[in-house]
Input
Amino acid sequence: MNVRRRLISGSAIAAVTALGLGTLSACSDSSAASGNTGKFDVVASFYPMAFLAERIGGDHVHVTTLTSPGQEPHDLEISPRQIGSMERSDAVLYLKGLQPSVDEAVEQSPVRTKIDAATLTTLEKHGTEVGGHAAGHQEEHAGHDHESADGNDPHIWLDPVRYAEVAQGVGRAFEKADPDHAADYKRNTAALVKQLDELNTDFKDGLAHTRSKVFITTHAAFGYLAERYGLTEEAISGLDPESEPSAARVRDLQRLAKADGVSTVFYETLVSDKTAKTVAGDAGVRTDVLDPIEGITKKSRGQDYLAVQRANLKALQSALGAK
Output
Protein backbone atom coordinates (compact mmCIF):
# COMPACT_ATOMS: atom_id res chain seq x y z
CA MET A 1 0.00 0.00 0.00
CA ASN A 2 1.28 3.40 -0.90
CA VAL A 3 1.80 5.63 2.11
CA ARG A 4 1.87 8.77 0.03
CA ARG A 5 -1.68 8.39 -1.23
CA ARG A 6 -2.95 8.78 2.32
CA LEU A 7 -1.22 12.06 3.02
CA ILE A 8 -3.42 15.12 2.90
CA SER A 9 -3.40 16.65 -0.52
CA GLY A 10 -2.85 20.34 -1.07
CA SER A 11 -6.31 20.53 -2.59
CA ALA A 12 -7.86 19.18 0.62
CA ILE A 13 -6.16 21.85 2.69
CA ALA A 14 -7.22 24.48 0.17
CA ALA A 15 -10.79 23.25 0.37
CA VAL A 16 -10.80 23.79 4.10
CA THR A 17 -9.61 27.33 3.67
CA ALA A 18 -11.96 28.14 0.82
CA LEU A 19 -15.10 26.70 2.35
CA GLY A 20 -14.49 27.97 5.84
CA LEU A 21 -13.94 25.90 8.93
CA GLY A 22 -17.39 26.51 10.35
CA THR A 23 -19.20 24.89 7.44
CA LEU A 24 -16.92 21.87 7.50
CA SER A 25 -17.40 20.74 11.08
CA ALA A 26 -18.69 17.17 11.04
CA CYS A 27 -20.87 17.95 14.03
CA SER A 28 -21.15 21.68 14.53
CA ASP A 29 -23.57 21.22 17.41
CA SER A 30 -21.07 19.08 19.30
CA SER A 31 -17.98 21.24 19.31
CA ALA A 32 -17.07 22.83 22.61
CA ALA A 33 -15.09 25.37 20.61
CA SER A 34 -18.30 26.46 18.87
CA GLY A 35 -19.96 27.13 22.22
CA ASN A 36 -22.98 24.96 21.46
CA THR A 37 -22.54 22.27 24.10
CA GLY A 38 -20.12 23.52 26.71
CA LYS A 39 -18.31 20.19 26.60
CA PHE A 40 -14.61 19.49 26.11
CA ASP A 41 -14.48 18.49 22.44
CA VAL A 42 -12.03 15.71 21.61
CA VAL A 43 -11.19 14.32 18.18
CA ALA A 44 -9.83 10.77 18.43
CA SER A 45 -7.97 9.16 15.54
CA PHE A 46 -9.41 5.63 15.88
CA TYR A 47 -11.27 3.38 18.30
CA PRO A 48 -8.60 2.65 20.97
CA MET A 49 -8.05 6.39 21.36
CA ALA A 50 -11.80 7.12 21.40
CA PHE A 51 -12.34 4.48 24.09
CA LEU A 52 -9.82 6.19 26.35
CA ALA A 53 -11.29 9.64 25.71
CA GLU A 54 -14.83 8.49 26.46
CA ARG A 55 -13.96 6.53 29.59
CA ILE A 56 -11.70 9.21 31.03
CA GLY A 57 -13.78 12.18 29.93
CA GLY A 58 -17.15 10.81 30.96
CA ASP A 59 -19.98 13.32 30.76
CA HIS A 60 -17.61 16.25 30.33
CA VAL A 61 -16.39 15.37 26.83
CA HIS A 62 -17.78 14.97 23.37
CA VAL A 63 -15.71 12.54 21.31
CA THR A 64 -15.57 12.44 17.53
CA THR A 65 -13.70 9.56 15.88
CA LEU A 66 -11.96 10.05 12.54
CA THR A 67 -12.02 6.34 11.64
CA SER A 68 -15.46 4.84 11.00
CA PRO A 69 -16.43 1.50 12.59
CA GLY A 70 -15.33 -1.30 10.31
CA GLN A 71 -12.77 0.83 8.48
CA GLU A 72 -9.17 -0.37 8.53
CA PRO A 73 -7.53 2.58 10.34
CA HIS A 74 -4.35 2.40 8.25
CA ASP A 75 -6.45 3.05 5.14
CA LEU A 76 -7.89 6.32 6.43
CA GLU A 77 -7.67 9.26 4.08
CA ILE A 78 -8.70 12.22 6.18
CA SER A 79 -11.29 14.47 4.52
CA PRO A 80 -11.58 18.26 4.44
CA ARG A 81 -14.66 17.96 6.64
CA GLN A 82 -12.66 16.02 9.23
CA ILE A 83 -9.82 18.53 9.07
CA GLY A 84 -12.37 21.24 9.78
CA SER A 85 -13.78 19.30 12.72
CA MET A 86 -10.28 18.94 14.14
CA GLU A 87 -9.68 22.67 13.75
CA ARG A 88 -12.75 23.38 15.89
CA SER A 89 -11.94 20.88 18.63
CA ASP A 90 -10.34 21.46 22.02
CA ALA A 91 -8.04 18.45 21.82
CA VAL A 92 -6.92 15.71 19.45
CA LEU A 93 -5.89 12.26 20.70
CA TYR A 94 -3.95 10.13 18.23
CA LEU A 95 -1.15 7.58 17.87
CA LYS A 96 1.65 8.99 15.77
CA GLY A 97 3.03 6.56 13.22
CA LEU A 98 -0.18 4.59 12.69
CA GLN A 99 -2.13 6.85 10.32
CA PRO A 100 0.03 9.12 8.15
CA SER A 101 -2.84 11.37 7.07
CA VAL A 102 -3.81 12.01 10.69
CA ASP A 103 -0.20 12.76 11.63
CA GLU A 104 0.03 15.40 8.93
CA ALA A 105 -3.34 16.94 9.80
CA VAL A 106 -2.40 17.19 13.48
CA GLU A 107 0.95 18.75 12.63
CA GLN A 108 -0.77 21.43 10.55
CA SER A 109 -3.65 22.00 12.95
CA PRO A 110 -3.75 24.91 15.42
CA VAL A 111 -5.68 22.81 17.95
CA ARG A 112 -4.28 23.69 21.35
CA THR A 113 -4.05 20.26 23.00
CA LYS A 114 -2.36 17.53 20.94
CA ILE A 115 -2.02 14.21 22.74
CA ASP A 116 0.23 11.65 21.05
CA ALA A 117 -0.27 8.24 22.70
CA ALA A 118 3.10 7.10 21.35
CA THR A 119 4.82 9.51 23.74
CA LEU A 120 2.99 8.17 26.80
CA THR A 121 4.57 4.69 26.87
CA THR A 122 7.50 2.85 25.31
CA LEU A 123 7.46 1.53 21.74
CA GLU A 124 9.57 -1.31 20.37
CA LYS A 125 10.38 -2.84 17.02
CA HIS A 126 8.47 -6.03 16.22
CA GLY A 127 8.71 -7.77 12.88
CA THR A 128 7.21 -10.98 11.58
CA GLU A 129 7.62 -12.64 14.96
CA VAL A 130 8.63 -12.05 18.55
CA GLY A 131 10.31 -15.23 19.67
CA GLY A 132 13.10 -15.89 17.21
CA HIS A 133 11.65 -18.52 14.88
CA ALA A 134 11.53 -16.37 11.77
CA ALA A 135 13.81 -13.41 12.30
CA GLY A 136 15.33 -13.98 8.90
CA HIS A 137 12.06 -13.01 7.28
CA GLN A 138 11.67 -9.62 8.94
CA GLU A 139 13.40 -7.79 6.14
CA GLU A 140 10.69 -8.97 3.75
CA HIS A 141 8.15 -6.84 5.57
CA ALA A 142 10.18 -3.73 6.32
CA GLY A 143 8.78 -0.39 5.28
CA HIS A 144 5.05 -1.13 5.52
CA ASP A 145 2.91 1.73 6.71
CA HIS A 146 1.81 -0.27 9.74
CA GLU A 147 5.17 0.68 11.20
CA SER A 148 5.95 4.13 12.50
CA ALA A 149 8.55 6.19 10.68
CA ASP A 150 11.29 4.81 12.91
CA GLY A 151 10.14 1.22 12.41
CA ASN A 152 8.44 0.86 15.79
CA ASP A 153 5.36 -1.30 16.23
CA PRO A 154 2.39 1.00 17.04
CA HIS A 155 0.02 -1.66 18.49
CA ILE A 156 0.58 -0.60 22.09
CA TRP A 157 -3.11 -0.78 23.07
CA LEU A 158 -3.10 -4.58 22.87
CA ASP A 159 -0.81 -4.72 25.91
CA PRO A 160 -3.01 -3.80 28.90
CA VAL A 161 -0.01 -2.52 30.84
CA ARG A 162 1.11 -0.11 28.12
CA TYR A 163 -2.50 0.89 27.46
CA ALA A 164 -2.88 1.76 31.15
CA GLU A 165 0.22 3.95 30.90
CA VAL A 166 -1.33 5.74 27.94
CA ALA A 167 -4.59 6.14 29.88
CA GLN A 168 -2.74 7.82 32.74
CA GLY A 169 -1.07 10.23 30.30
CA VAL A 170 -4.38 11.05 28.64
CA GLY A 171 -5.92 11.70 32.04
CA ARG A 172 -3.15 14.14 32.94
CA ALA A 173 -3.56 15.92 29.60
CA PHE A 174 -7.33 16.28 30.12
CA GLU A 175 -6.79 17.62 33.64
CA LYS A 176 -4.40 20.26 32.33
CA ALA A 177 -6.52 21.26 29.34
CA ASP A 178 -9.85 21.34 31.21
CA PRO A 179 -8.97 22.06 34.86
CA ASP A 180 -12.58 22.72 35.89
CA HIS A 181 -13.22 18.98 35.64
CA ALA A 182 -9.78 17.73 36.69
CA ALA A 183 -11.05 15.85 39.74
CA ASP A 184 -13.48 13.83 37.63
CA TYR A 185 -10.84 13.07 35.01
CA LYS A 186 -8.49 11.87 37.74
CA ARG A 187 -11.17 9.64 39.25
CA ASN A 188 -12.22 8.21 35.87
CA THR A 189 -8.61 7.54 34.92
CA ALA A 190 -7.99 5.67 38.16
CA ALA A 191 -11.10 3.53 37.60
CA LEU A 192 -10.04 2.65 34.05
CA VAL A 193 -6.47 1.86 35.07
CA LYS A 194 -7.85 -0.48 37.76
CA GLN A 195 -9.86 -2.33 35.10
CA LEU A 196 -6.81 -2.59 32.85
CA ASP A 197 -4.75 -3.90 35.77
CA GLU A 198 -7.41 -6.57 36.34
CA LEU A 199 -7.33 -7.43 32.65
CA ASN A 200 -3.56 -7.80 32.83
CA THR A 201 -3.92 -10.15 35.79
CA ASP A 202 -6.49 -12.23 33.89
CA PHE A 203 -4.15 -12.59 30.91
CA LYS A 204 -1.14 -13.37 33.09
CA ASP A 205 -2.97 -16.03 35.09
CA GLY A 206 -4.93 -17.39 32.13
CA LEU A 207 -1.86 -17.92 29.95
CA ALA A 208 0.61 -18.99 32.64
CA HIS A 209 0.24 -22.72 31.96
CA THR A 210 -0.38 -23.70 28.35
CA ARG A 211 0.53 -26.66 26.19
CA SER A 212 2.09 -24.36 23.57
CA LYS A 213 3.45 -20.80 23.61
CA VAL A 214 3.33 -20.22 19.84
CA PHE A 215 0.43 -18.71 17.92
CA ILE A 216 0.07 -17.74 14.26
CA THR A 217 -1.73 -14.57 13.14
CA THR A 218 -2.42 -12.95 9.79
CA HIS A 219 -0.32 -9.92 10.71
CA ALA A 220 1.99 -8.88 13.51
CA ALA A 221 -0.38 -6.86 15.66
CA PHE A 222 0.17 -8.83 18.86
CA GLY A 223 3.88 -8.39 19.48
CA TYR A 224 3.46 -6.43 22.70
CA LEU A 225 0.81 -8.83 24.02
CA ALA A 226 2.98 -11.85 23.20
CA GLU A 227 6.01 -10.30 24.87
CA ARG A 228 4.02 -9.37 27.98
CA TYR A 229 2.76 -12.93 28.56
CA GLY A 230 5.72 -15.01 27.42
CA LEU A 231 4.27 -16.07 24.06
CA THR A 232 5.67 -16.19 20.54
CA GLU A 233 3.70 -14.57 17.75
CA GLU A 234 4.33 -15.83 14.24
CA ALA A 235 2.75 -13.54 11.65
CA ILE A 236 1.89 -14.53 8.10
CA SER A 237 2.22 -11.04 6.66
CA GLY A 238 4.33 -8.92 8.97
CA LEU A 239 3.04 -5.60 10.25
CA ASP A 240 0.87 -4.91 7.20
CA PRO A 241 -2.43 -6.84 7.38
CA GLU A 242 -2.92 -6.82 3.60
CA SER A 243 0.56 -7.72 2.35
CA GLU A 244 0.97 -11.05 0.61
CA PRO A 245 3.31 -13.56 2.29
CA SER A 246 5.97 -15.29 0.23
CA ALA A 247 5.59 -18.97 -0.64
CA ALA A 248 8.64 -19.66 1.50
CA ARG A 249 7.04 -17.94 4.48
CA VAL A 250 3.88 -20.01 4.11
CA ARG A 251 5.92 -23.23 3.99
CA ASP A 252 7.87 -22.15 7.07
CA LEU A 253 4.64 -21.55 8.98
CA GLN A 254 3.21 -24.90 7.96
CA ARG A 255 6.34 -26.66 9.21
CA LEU A 256 6.31 -24.59 12.38
CA ALA A 257 2.66 -25.42 13.05
CA LYS A 258 3.46 -29.10 13.04
CA ALA A 259 6.70 -28.79 15.02
CA ASP A 260 5.24 -26.59 17.78
CA GLY A 261 1.83 -28.18 17.95
CA VAL A 262 0.01 -25.08 16.74
CA SER A 263 -3.73 -25.77 16.61
CA THR A 264 -5.03 -22.47 15.22
CA VAL A 265 -4.28 -19.78 12.67
CA PHE A 266 -5.82 -16.49 13.76
CA TYR A 267 -7.30 -13.85 11.50
CA GLU A 268 -8.95 -10.51 12.30
CA THR A 269 -12.38 -9.06 11.74
CA LEU A 270 -11.46 -6.14 9.45
CA VAL A 271 -9.29 -8.09 6.97
CA SER A 272 -10.02 -11.08 4.73
CA ASP A 273 -9.48 -14.53 6.24
CA LYS A 274 -8.40 -16.01 2.90
CA THR A 275 -4.68 -16.25 3.66
CA ALA A 276 -5.29 -17.60 7.16
CA LYS A 277 -7.54 -20.35 5.78
CA THR A 278 -4.97 -21.26 3.14
CA VAL A 279 -2.19 -21.68 5.71
CA ALA A 280 -4.49 -23.46 8.15
CA GLY A 281 -5.84 -25.82 5.51
CA ASP A 282 -2.40 -26.87 4.31
CA ALA A 283 -1.21 -27.32 7.90
CA GLY A 284 -4.34 -29.22 8.94
CA VAL A 285 -5.33 -26.80 11.71
CA ARG A 286 -8.37 -24.60 12.37
CA THR A 287 -8.90 -20.84 12.15
CA ASP A 288 -10.29 -18.42 14.71
CA VAL A 289 -10.49 -14.68 15.36
CA LEU A 290 -7.90 -12.75 17.34
CA ASP A 291 -9.11 -9.17 17.23
CA PRO A 292 -6.61 -6.27 17.14
CA ILE A 293 -9.48 -4.04 18.33
CA GLU A 294 -8.90 -1.32 15.76
CA GLY A 295 -12.65 -0.81 15.57
CA ILE A 296 -15.86 -2.23 17.02
CA THR A 297 -18.39 -3.68 14.57
CA LYS A 298 -21.28 -6.14 14.64
CA LYS A 299 -18.70 -8.89 14.09
CA SER A 300 -16.76 -7.96 17.21
CA ARG A 301 -16.90 -10.38 20.13
CA GLY A 302 -17.91 -7.67 22.57
CA GLN A 303 -19.10 -4.10 22.62
CA ASP A 304 -15.96 -2.43 23.94
CA TYR A 305 -12.21 -2.86 24.34
CA LEU A 306 -12.38 -4.74 27.63
CA ALA A 307 -14.96 -7.27 26.40
CA VAL A 308 -13.10 -7.96 23.15
CA GLN A 309 -9.80 -8.37 24.99
CA ARG A 310 -11.39 -11.00 27.22
CA ALA A 311 -12.68 -12.76 24.09
CA ASN A 312 -9.11 -12.65 22.76
CA LEU A 313 -7.91 -14.24 25.99
CA LYS A 314 -10.40 -17.10 25.64
CA ALA A 315 -9.36 -17.64 22.02
CA LEU A 316 -5.68 -17.79 23.01
CA GLN A 317 -6.40 -20.14 25.90
CA SER A 318 -8.24 -22.48 23.56
CA ALA A 319 -5.57 -22.32 20.85
CA LEU A 320 -2.62 -22.74 23.23
CA GLY A 321 -4.18 -25.45 25.36
CA ALA A 322 -4.44 -23.61 28.67
CA LYS A 323 -4.37 -25.94 31.66
In short: The radius of gyration is 20 Å. The CA atoms of residues 268 and 291 lie 5 Å apart. Residues 1-35, 128-145 have pLDDT under 50 and may be disordered. The chain has eleven helices and eight strands.
